[in-house]
Write a structure and sequence with these properties.
Blueprint: E1 2-4, E2 22-26, H1 31-39, E3 43-44, E4 47-49, E5 52-54, E6 56-58, E7 63-66, H2 75-83, E8 86-90, H3 94-102, H4 115-126, E9 130-137, E10 140-150, E11 153-161, H5 166-181, E12 185-189, H6 193-196, E13 201-203, H7 205-216, H8 230-233
Length: 241
């Protein structure tokens, strides 16, 4: 793990990351730094050590991803997708989704989504790189997620829910949308039980970096989601798992 001064982004080789994936400290949360990091398989994750806030960059291995054609949707989630009355949109409430993701949770001592990180990703959103997926129920925002896209690569950063399964509904719609747009890599960085149950897998560093290079070089765009009604888009014939 190294410390870098402020200048044009240069990162250590990702193979030098420690066992937790920590690669370096320092740098800056500017668009050029963040985008270059993603292109190299690195992402920012601020740390607080003994009351001191530090900008840290991580590149864990193995890496957790969703294969876009292998999403698992449970029977209960299928029913909720078809009959729950949810609507899903993209980029309609980016700031609100980020703020909800950053809010403290009962099982966590704090949040890694700092005000500086929020400002940085809001700028990426303005530039067309950061996107949000919103889940609505009767006009209320009840869940969502946000992430970053470069070419055919999407990195999911954080998600939240206020209704049961709302974040899962966001994932389902996002996976289908990315597949339709021609994306080839949906990176979720580190897996969880929640994502594993939906089909997330882990791949090694070499495979990840090879797929990352291919995906970021694709000439595709995130676009707009055009299947806002869950029940319409997730009919019985469109579900797997």
């Amino acid at each position: 793990m190294q410390t870098r001064p402020l200048k044009y982004p240069t990162f250590p080789a990702v193979e030098t990351a420690d066992a937790d994936g920590l690669l370096m400290l320092g740098g800056e949360l500017s668009p050029v730094w963040i985008l270059e990091a993603y292109r190299q398989g690195i992402f920012p994750w601020p740390l607080s050590l003994e009351g001191v806030d530090l900008l840290a960059w991580f590149s864990p291995a193995p890496r957790a991803i969703f294969e876009l054609d292998q999403l698992h949707i449970s029977r209960r989630l299928r029913r909720r997708l078809r009959n729950g009355g949810y609507k899903v949109t993209t980029n309609r409430a980016f700031d609100r989704v980020m703020a909800s993701c950053a809010a403290p949770r009962e099982d966590e001592a704090g949040t890694w989504i700092t005000p500086d990180l929020t400002t940085a990703y809001r700028r990426l959103h303005e530039l067309g790189y950061a996107h949000s997926v919103e889940v609505w129920h009767r006009g209320e925002l009840v869940g969502g997620l946000y992430g970053v896209s470069i070419g055919g690569f999407f990195s999911g950063e954080s998600m939240y829910h206020r209704h049961r399964d709302a974040s899962k509904i966001a994932i389902c719609h996002l996976v289908r949308h990315l597949d339709k747009q021609g994306f080839t890599l949906f990176d979720i960085q580190q897996s969880s039980l929640h994502c594993s149950m939906m089909g997330a897998i882990e791949i090694g560093r070499d495979e990840y970096l090879q797929r990352l290079r291919t995906a970021t070089g694709q000439d595709v765009s995130f676009g707009e989601m055009n299947h806002s009604e869950s029940g319409t888009f997730f009919g019985e014939e469109s579900l797997t798992g």
